Amino acid sequence: MGEPLRKKHIAFTALMWVLAVMMVYPFIMMVAISFRPAGQAYMPLFASGIMTTLRNYEEVLTHPNFFDWYRNTIVTVAVTILIRLVITLLAAYSFSRLRFRGKAAILAFLVATMMVPGETTMVPRYLYFQQIHILNTLWSIVLPETSEVFYLILLTEFFSSIPGDFTEAASIDGAGHGTVLFRIFIPLSGPAIATTVLFSFINIWNNFLDPYLFINRISMQLITPALQFFQEQGGANMPVQMAGSSLALIPVIILFIFTQKYFVQGVASSGIKG
Amino acid sequence: MKKSGMMRQEERMGYLFILPFLAMFAIFKLYPMIYGFIVSFWDRNSEMKLLDTTFVGFDNYISVLKSRSFWEAFGHSIVFSVIYIAFLMVFGFLAAVMLNRKFLGRTAVRTCFYIPYVTNMIAVGIVFKYLLNPTRGPVNAIFRLFGASGPKWFSSPVLALPAAAVVAAWAALAFHIITCLAALQEIPQDVYEVADIEGATPLQKIRYIVLPYLMPTLFMLLTITLINSFRNYTAIVGLTGGGPGTSSKVVSLLIYDDAFNFLKFSIASAEGVIFTVFIIIVNRIFTKARSVWENR
Amino acid sequence: MKRILTVLSVLIMTCASVFAMGSSEEPAAAEYDRVVTTTVTATYLNETWFNTMNADFEAETGIHVDVIPVPGDEDEYKAKINIDLMAGSDVDVVETLGPKDYSRQVSAGFFMPLNEVVEAAGIDPYALYGANLPVEDDGNYYALPFKQEMYCVFYNKALFDEAGVPYPEGPWTWDEYVETAAAITDKSKGVYGSLMNADLPWMYMPAQQLAIPFYKEDGTCNFDAPEFREAAEWFKHISNELGVQPSVAELEAEAANWNYYALEGYRLAMFPQGNWFTRLLNSQEDYPKDWNYGVAPLPSAGENGNNNLVSLGYVAINKNAAHPEEALEYALWIAENQWKYEGGIPAFATMTEEQQQLAFGSIAEASHGQVTVDDLYQNLINTGLGSVSSDIVGTAAAEYYNIVKEELSSYNMDLQDIDTAISNIVSRVNEAIANAQ
Predict the structure, then answer these.
(1) ipTM at complex level
(2) What is the separation, in whole angstroms, between the first and last Cα of chain B?
(3) Domain count of chain B?
(4) Domain limits at C415?
């Protein structure tokens, strides 16, 4: 490597690191605020006279419902992902491998409905969930989340990319479609399934609007909107909300750091990249 | 005879396999859409009229289309989306290209770039309100070093909406980076080697190698981002609350307010329907543009 | 096949656990003989007095209180309880934000009329609460007032000392208030003489003190009355031109966090606020500060504006209450006792000396000598001022409030002139009123 090129490379590395710090700075600030008294929430990172306190964490952890929220969120995420995977894998197999009348039309219709953002249907969803009595239960979050067309497309595209010989060999052996799906396709689609799980996990974990809207009982709430319970007259209790956010983030961050290599791999092998 | 039997069986299995998905979809996704469409033709515009409702035809649509606040919010939504999409498409691509190069600590740097994506938007909002605080935030402190007072960000009626769009885009950047990185890895190494031999500059490489390879990915990202850009309720609530005044009130906020603060459910549903029609039209245009580009 | 079975069984187990949680919605029913459920703001959750109060209630009556807190700020609280009641909730007792949304909630049929049951309980609410009792046009009342927030001016003694300005004393006028604020304001040190929220009623406070009606006789919007315009112009004048207080644009940047702003360090000399603000002023742990505060009455808005602003809190019983008997007991008890625990002012028509001591004793004690019981009583209650509600009331109150706030904010930020702001308010509010009927 020539000297000017080397210098350039060092400059580039430095630039990337500066950018990286800028990307995590708000996150660091969040953690920093979580250790401050409310009156000092909005002060610079290293200002003089800042007091550190564990009171915020104490308040969050001693909240009688904190572990309910955590458990609710974990259950919701787990159940949603499980149901989502099962029904989406079946449908994706069918759309990618089986011939039946109306297939293209159904798929096109499903894709078209992706254009309707959840925000524009929150009113009918609220009125409807009220009628079928699933407001204030985790079902109001789980059930609508299970059939997400985005993941159907992702897995359908992935299955389509699996070479046809596999299926043919299997069907000559007389294996049914169920066997083919579970014995051949699912073991082959590790990265795609990992991607689905991770994206689902992050999206459901950080979902704010739906649970905020559909769940009115404190013990039934999920962790992200539940942080809104840390209020005081005149506004949000910022440091306590920050402490709660930090605690809520732990599982996501751990999952993310340990699996981030699958992200790129999974996306690369699935349909998202176009 | 046997073949058509096989076909029939395959068809049956085909329907059977999509049935669970379609059933859940029809019950929990499609029906609310239709229901919203129906509600928008009835008068459920106050808590007293919830049970005792009457059919009013297009009345709700007429009053939405005539209301100033709807068009204002509509304009804000478009501005938000344009900035959000532009930021993500440009910086998502650039960041991916840079992160694709080898350098010291690349994995750690990548992780740093992904962290905003997993942080919840409400917490992001609280922190950014501090970072962009005109008098006490660190961002404006930098401006003051150069003697300028700096922009007022979220308290400026002009900048609040663009600033919110940029922060929301910043938080969503990881998805674009990951997707672009995935596509970048598919570019065969020898293409670069040929370019190196011919002495291509990095910019030329991007222009003549990377961009053409990534075009399908970028088009797909554009479609997804277009849809996501209208899912902006949490971002706006967390960052500006629709203010100052109404200068960053987008359609999703208007729908929430009309429905849940003022209990005008039918008006809110009509707003949702009109906005959805708009999104579908925009998306049709995008799809058309894509096919024209691909067939050129 | 084995794997499928494992997946399925895990699925079933998790589903079952969700079901189990769905049905654990009324956990208290089995554990206690008598239960009452109540909806309150999530703010209460962090307050020890609230739990002590419910424990005392349970000790006295044997009724267990099941709390359903609602997150968010005042607007979100109001929206949430309305949605919940509309969805047919069977919660028993609801603490509402007082007059703000009351008529609307009553006409929506959310609440139970209380006349007969309260009088059957041997209480004369007309004598007890006087004008604070929310009697509707039909002669019924659907809620009992359980607290009132009185406005006053809190001030930062250190800033007064530093500027050599004597502490403010009542009775005084807004002109004197602005003069005092101007004497203390020192932009070079970042010191403002005053802080008023970028919110209602601050943006037209004198008009509210003059008790200018919000509706004309025909029920349409009366915001085009000259007093509102004058008050709004005055607010903008003292913020943007005189600069004795942060402008709306500056405050908007703080969004929901103006209380941090108010209490941070050494910057703001006077804040017209409700008595609840003492909680922040007294909380050395959450809001460390190195200055002492004092209290003065709210300035008068002239001859017809010798009024203090008061906001009430109401306690109402849901018409679909699951436990109507217990609900009544709890509501009556709250109306009689909550203020003692909360350290607030009861909504009684008159207060005995003992009650004053009770109401202000805890605040004075928590202030560690910064204010005394007498300071508080003299400057909050015994001010010689009459009282008017600080809220916009009526059928379209929620929309009215939002529209005025939006349009006046835009006016204060020079996005539109006062004529446009007022004509927008009038046309938008009239539209909202027409829609609500």
Answers:
(1) 0.86
(2) 46
(3) 1
(4) 150-309+368-436
